[in-house]
Design brief:
By secondary structure, the protein is mainly α. It has three helices and no strands. Helix content is about 70%, strand content about 0%.
């Protein structure tokens, strides 16, 4: 069996469960966020800007570099 031939199929019920669990996680994070967190962000936005740049630029660039340097065939690195 080749790794490229593997297909993951979720039952509709398990997708609903996954959606609910992810929603609960996001709600938990939102409930933990306070106005003081936003005030701190307004006072020192540098950390948030750097984190956003890392998420949107650095991580994809590193992933792309690792993909180019690997010996995987084309469909494998995309997953």
């Amino acid at each position: 069996m080749n790794i490229d031939d593997v297909a993951v199929r979720f039952a509709p019920g398990s997708m609903v469960a996954l959606d609910l669990v992810l929603g609960l996680i996001m709600l938990g994070i939102a409930l933990d966020t306070s106005p003081a967190d936003f005030r701190a962000l307004r006072r020192a936005p540098r950390a948030a800007v750097l984190a956003l740049l890392a998420q949107l630029v650095a991580l994809p660039a590193v992933t792309f570099g690792l993909t180019l340097s690997s010996t995987c065939r084309p469909p494998s690195p995309s997953g």
